[in-house]
Write a structure and sequence with these properties.
Keywords: Cell membrane, Membrane, Transmembrane, Transmembrane helix, Transport. The protein is mainly alpha-helical and 428 residues long. The chain is 78% helix and 0% strand.
Amino acid sequence: MSHLIDLSPFRQSPAFARMWIGSTLSGIGGQLTIVTVMLHVFALTQSTFAVSMIAVAGLVPMILAGLYGGMLADAFDRRRVALIAAVITFAATALLATLTWAHAETIWWLYALSMIIAAANSVGMATRTAIIPRLLSRDMLAPASALNGVAFGMTVMAGPALAGLLVALTGYGWTYTIDVILMLSMFLGLWTLPKLLPEGEIVRPGLASLVDGLRFLRRAGNIRMQYVLDICAMTFGQPLALFPALGTVILGGGAVTTGLLTAAVAVGTFLSSLFSGRIVHYRWHGRGIARAVQAYGATIALFGIVLLVGALLPAGHATASSPNVLLIALACVALAFSGAADNVSSIYRNTMMQAAVPDTMRGRLQGVFIIVVAGGPRLGALYAGVLASLTALWFPPLLGGLLVIGLVALFVRLSPRFRAYDAEDPQP
């Protein structure tokens, strides 16, 4: 068995391959727009607070759209739902480009269109994830999750870097326009799909559908447990909010260091997917999730130790113009391993969601998962920011990593059914 990524899903399902290519190219374009909007807002306002409010403004629409989009995906043809979401994203991005070319953009237009794009992307994400198990056999779901990890790693690595380069060389209008062009690939992937009505009893979108999904989740102990472990990891082990300060205070290097630290996580995600050949064939997914999340906690604690070493060095050892290259390299290695561990956990979590959840529930459960994915890092930013302001920059990741290890051990010990989860007999 090879250590390299398993490409069998592409061979088994050309429809999955087309959708993967479309999602990857449009994902790079989406990252272009996210970063370009941030740069655009700062250029218009010269306010970092205004930039931070883009994420805050988009959070509620993203959560609500994810929940409702999940209900739509469980009630209607998923191909059509995904196409409509893609059309809305395409139209909003095209309007963004048009306003920019016409020099008619305002801060409120940028906020409003960013919110629409975030909401439409939530619906599209929940729907496309629910589509995958209909295109592949069950034994191909884990390799497909690893392939999606490669796609995510490429989009996060390439998108932000290209955005900065394109804005500097061509301006905002051309950068938005390139995203519009890349978005066309998403339509190719979705348009060629067959009609995909949910299998099983269909509940019309609304309160009854939401209650039905939550009632199922209450019975689905394994799915609930993976949500809990992910929230633990993202709440106590997400140091992203500290990165800007680290480039000034401990590691030096300014904005360049911030970019390197952010990219290191994506590099770890990409490489772990690239060498996931053996990982995807491990059948005990509950144990795999627990061990991967604990490994994530250990790498975040190691990142905290690197920062502690930097804090103990004499004052002024690193500045924006004189970085501590060795410490930056060590910090990037720790963060790369954290990205790898998180991706391994994601492979098993996504496979469990797709294999153990009935087809008629997959959209709604993916909608709930969007809340977990969107809310966890924001709780993590609050934890890291508040604790760092009260103590020191190195303390939140060191304490948080240790908390992740301990909490996962406790929760998994209390859930023998989760420890015994077998991919050969998936049970929610």
